[in-house]
Amino acid sequence: MIPTTLLAILTLPLLLLPTAVTAGPLAYATCQAGCSAVVMACYAAGGATWGATLGATAPATIVGCNSAFGLCQAGCAAALLLPMP
């Protein structure tokens, strides 16, 4: 796992580049769908239902699913802003 500070340092130069075209909403939506599919599979493997588990009573595997989902969502936010090739 890449620490947040290192990720910010590596991502910042990309955000400073002048861009005429960005990946935009389609890349963001695709990323969101991928994150959702993965977290649903993670929850199913952990024996839980996504959206029906309280955070305080969740087992460690489900907490791990939630953490991975958060990182995936952060990546989606970056995909919204990154330039298209």
In oligomeric terms, what are we looking at? single chain
Strand content: under 5%
> Which residue ranges are poorly predicted, with pLDDT under 50 across at least 5 consecutive positions?
none
Mean pLDDT: 78
* Rg result: 15 Å
Order of helices and strands: HHH
Distance between the termini: 26 Å
Please give the count of helices. Answer: 3
Q: What is the 3D form? A: elongated
By secondary-structure content and strand pairing, the structural class works out as mainly alpha
Q: Give the biggest sheet.
A: none
Could you describe the 3D structure shown?
The chain is mainly α and 85 residues long. It is built from 3 helices and no strands. Helix 2 runs antiparallel to helix 3. The longest helix is centred in the middle third of the chain and has 22 residues, at 24-45.
Characteristic key phrases:
3 helices; mainly alpha; 85 residues
In short:
By secondary structure, the protein is mainly α. It has helices spanning 4-16, 24-45, 60-81.
Architecture blueprint of SSEs:
Elements: H1 4-16, H2 24-45, H3 60-81
